[in-house]
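Data availability (excerpt). The following record was deposited with the supplementary files.
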Amino acid sequence: MPDISFPARLDDRRLLALLQEDVPHGDLTTDSLPLRARRAEMAFHARGPLRLSGIEEAARLLTLCGATATLAHASGESLGHGTELLRGQGPAAALLRAWKVAQTLVEFMSGIAGATATMVDALRQAGFGCPVACTRKSPPGTRALAALAVRDGGGILHRLGLSETLLVFPEHRALLAPEDWPGCLAGLRERQPEKRLVVEVGSAEAALEAAAAGAEVLQLERFSPAELAALRDRLRAAGLQPRLAPAGGVTLANAVDYARSGADLLVTSSPYFARPAEVQVSLRQI
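Predicted structure:
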């Protein structure tokens, strides 16, 4: 079995926190059985096709518990049913401690990666190169895992947090005087010249106004593909060419329709709620 020696992308502090959550005071069942001197081998296999994600983190979880781990494949690979992913050896108690955390992590992350990859592949097969950009709206506490999984699926990250991008929401505008709105957008561009100015809009009129005020990307909240196409025509007629990013309700079912209507990128949270992949874990004494 080949050893794919890629390091875990999450640091040990985060991985240890996952273990601490699952085993806060020891493994009561394992510690109460006569297993202290037993050694075992654990193997992970794909139970169905998957886009692999999180396998390096799973391997590191095994080693943090006192076992050894050998990888057969790396995150980002598309694999078939029955493919061996990871094999670990060591004290039975160490493998049992890491077992469910490692398995669940790979299943959760591979589910997100697979859903992202399916959307990206659908776009490419239809002849479109627009990126699939996933938002920061993953379930609380999972953002670091979700971000890795999105990249393993061939997607990009829309924004990981409020510190990295300029994205003006209608909620921001509601707190500003109407006459200050154009000047505020111009001020943002002056104060943050390295950042693109992104403005979320909920209507064609708001989109035209924001584009005229200097918005470089329009995040189109709940626009249908037909509404996006009509807006693009109106913007072009006005001599405006911001990038158009539909958001809210973008799924695999309509991704190609949005691309066909002229979207420059797709903003979505749907991969975060995909069904987890299935990974079979077997354990034997050695």
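Summary of structural features: The first strand starts at residue 39 and ends at 46.
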